[in-house]
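WARN retry 2 of 3 for item q-0093 after timeout on previous attempt; input resubmitted unchanged.
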Amino acid sequence: MGSVMEYKSPWGTALYIMSSVSVIIMLGIPLIIFIIKRNDWPFFNIIFILLPLILLIAALFTIRGYILTPDMLFIKRLLWKTRIDLSDLVSVEVDPQAMDKSIRTFGNGGMFSFSGYYRNKKLGLYRAFVTSPKLSVILKFKNRTILITPNNPVDFTNTIKQYRSID
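OK item q-0093 returned
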């Protein structure tokens, strides 16, 4: 087995729907205001600039995949990679229901990803880098929990267990 494994992060149905609705709203409202020529409204310029800007910023945080090495996990974003040190990883498991009944405490709830900080009874506070909740893999560390969604959760889990010598 090679020392670097790459996994895609496929979009689930909910993410497709939420992202599509977000694009329609964030671009549609400024377009409608522009078409009806209501540039005399006090907040016209703010809406016209702010909504597309929010959309662009969210797009930058899109999760494109994961790169797994024996020591690190990299979350591939649009223009950069988020680095997660695996040295204090305690356990890893596949759980398609891991994100069920979660409440977002800070982050993005479906505009190109489900990312940021969430909480539920099962996991407590956790950080999500998710595109398809049904592919969830829970990474438990000594002081934190991370949720990711690689295209092949079982292979990812087996690979990381071999790399880190955990059960």
